[in-house]
Structure formats: C-alpha cells, structure tokens
Amino acid sequence: MVLLLHGGGQNRHAWATTARRLHAHGYTVIAYDTRGHGDSDWDPSGQYDVEKFVADLLSVREHVGTESPPALVGASLGGLTILATHLLAPAGLWAAVILVDITPRMEFHGARRIVSFMAAHPDGFGTLTDAADIIAEYNPRRPRPENLDGLHKVLRQRSDGRWVWRWDPAFISSNFDVLQGELMTDTEEFEAISGFLAEGARRITAPTLLVRGALSDVVSEETVNEFLELVPHAETTDVTGTGHMVAGDDNDAFTSAVTDFLDRRVFL
Fold first, then answer.
1. Residues 161 and 211 in one domain
2. AB hydrolase-1 domain spans which residues (predicted)?
C-alpha cells in the first residue's frame, strides 16, 4: 500500500495520474485531502499546526490497518508532515518514505515565493480564465491548458460568482507569518522549524528516497547534502526540467522514479 500526501494548497487530485499508474503497477493507493484542503473540513479553530496534520496521517494509518506497513509519499507540505510524524510516532509504522522536493531546511526565497503566491488572491478570481493566467505566470514550465475544466478540482465558485481556491485561507495566515509581510526577511522562526524537522529526519529508519525537481528553488544541492547527513541511508534523484511541483511538471519521470524505488527497495 502507498499513501500519497499532497502539498499545501493542493488536494488529492494532484496525485490522480500518479495514483492511476501506481495502481496499474500493482499497488493499492490512497490519496486523501489534508484538513482544510479539497473536500476535507476546515479546522474550526482556523489553526493548522503540524501536529494536526500528523494526527490526521496517523488516523488514516490506523483506519487502513493492513498487515504490512504502507509506504509514504509526501510532496511539500505532505513531506513536512512525514518528517514531523517521525517525531511523534514510531518510525516502524512505515515501509518507506519518499519525499518530493522537500527537505528539513528549505531555501527561504523559494518557500517565500510559494507562500506569496498562495496569499496573493484572498478574494479569488473573476473568471477561470483569470485564474489560469495567474497560474501560468507562476509556473511557466507547464503549458497553459486550453480546456479549463480541470481547474474545478482546485477552485470552487462562490455564491457571488467569484472563483476561490479549495483550501482554507487560514492555512496560510495561521502558519506562515514568518514568510509574509514585514516578517518575510526574518528567518529566525524559519530556522527553528528547520531544526524541528531535522530531528524528525534523523529518526527515519525505513528505506528513503528524496525526489528533487532539478529546477527547484525550494530544495537545492546544499539542502540535499544536509538531508543526506541526517538520513545517510537515503537515496536521491533529480528530475530534469521540473521545479518544486515535480509530479505535475513531469509525471512520467516522477512516477518511474517512485515505482523503481518501491520495486527495488520495498515491495520486492
């Protein structure tokens, strides 16, 4: 079994192609919407602490049961959740750990760019075309789709006709002040978070793969090397021509890297 954890601002649909290919390869696959994202409930307190994401992952793990531990694949926020989980739960719960363009220490400017994009349109978009233009500007590596129906998976239409993201805006406002406004140049809290996640990485015992987008501004060669010092048994691979959203930029190469690793190191 493989559990797929999406990134911040995404939802389970981000894994649709990967999930189909993993299933066709013989794996049981589960992708779920993180709290405050997709079709999952918004947190009533408006607080999205990492401990809550960890608790949700552990609840999913308990619900699926299985005699054999599942493998974890986490992109961005999903990967951060995996790292934090290793501080709060036994490492033996998992058959493998695959982190997708995320390391305990991220490059500050890259993380800031993501959060700035997510926080930039709190009132949404007038049309799907407007949204598509903004998304294409943010990620020019992907061709702008001619058919915009796919945007319904990441946007919902309010009663006033405007299109807004399918995630709780409080997810950003409650967690990423260090990357916004006047605090965007203050890295003290950012470094404290990195130290917390580094301790989680040290506790990983399962076979581990770090998949990096070769053009990523979030994970650099330097942060990869730091990760390997924390998890010496880990393997790493770069996916050419991709940025932070590796699976969406080149799903063929990404899924091939994942299946090769799982076949070779885990589900022999």
1. no
2. 2-254
DSSP three-state, residue 235: strand
Largest CA distance in the chain: 53
Strands 2-5 and 155-157: unpaired
**What is the full per-residue pLDDT of the chain (268 aa) written as tens digits?**
999 999 999 999 999 999 999 999 999 999 999 999 999 999 999 999 899 999 999 999 999 887 789 999 999 999 999 999 999 999 999 999 999 999 999 998 999 899 899 989 989 999 999 999 999 999 888 888 889 999 999 999 999 999 999 999 999 876 655 444 444 445 677 778 899 999 999 999 999 999 999 999 999 999 999 999 999 999 999 999 999 999 999 999 999 999 999 999 987 6
Mark whether 93 and 128 lie in a shared domain: no
The token duo for 32 is 């779920």
| Residue at 247 is within a domain | yes
Helix 221-230 to helix 188-202 angle (10° resolution) is: 40
Walk across the sheet containing 71-75 and list its strands.
29-32, 2-5, 71-75, 96-100, 208-213, 235-239
Domain count, the chain: 2
Tokens describing residue 1:
């079994």
How many degrees, rounded to 5, is the angle at CA 174 between CA 173 and CA 177?
Answer: 65
The answer for residues whose C-beta is within 8 angstroms of residue 21's C-beta and 6 or more apart is 251, 255, 259
Q: Which residues pair with 19 in a beta bridge?
A: none
d(CA 74, CA 2): 11
Domain membership of residue 182 (yes or no) is no
What is the domain extent for residue 227? 2-107+191-265
